[in-house]
Design brief:
Elements lengths: L4 E5 L14 H13 L4 E2 L5 E7 L5 E7 L7 H11 L6 E7 L7 E5 L7 H10 L4 E6 L9 H5 L8 H21 L1 H9 L3
Parallel strand pairs: 1-4, 1-5, 5-7
Antiparallel strand pairs: 2-3, 3-4, 6-7
Helix pairs in contact: 1-5, 2-3, 5-6
Amino acid sequence: MTQTWLVVGLGNPGPDYARTRHNIGQMALAELERRGGATAKRHGKAEALVAESRVIGGPKVVTAFPTTFMNRSGGPVAKLMDYYGVELEHVIVLHDELDLPLGEVRLKQGGGHGGHNGMRDIIAARGPDVLRVRLGIGRPPGRQDPADYVLKPFAKAEQEEADLLVQLGADAVERIIAEGFLTAQQRIHSPS
């Protein structure tokens, strides 16, 4: 039997947060669902919107948008892992990353939360070995508080790069599932 994958896009619920930097993970997940023709629906067992699809000739892929606030992402992820029988090494989390320049994508497996409250809650619920697609949003300008910065939409001058970042995030997930994590990481970190 082919292992099921769970792909989670982190963000905050509601229209006020929909296009903010903090929700770039959800934007990339929406692109992944669009490519697969999937439509997310409310899940009865977890606080999440979920869609199921299948990679041609490959595994079942469950995509999920937690409907909790970012700092409570661990509960929905744990419930979905249990419901679908997904092992931690087949969970991919898309999230914003302050420590990467806008537009940069990095893959990571395991490690700490790096101050990201969504990752902190997932690690507390299931451990650190989750696969991550880190989507660079850059650091705030000047002395702006990072908490305020991540809750603001991308500036007009940044929008083209943010749109490309959404595409690259979806590409990264497809590569991980099709090629395996290490091969995908090598290709993305060292493009030819």
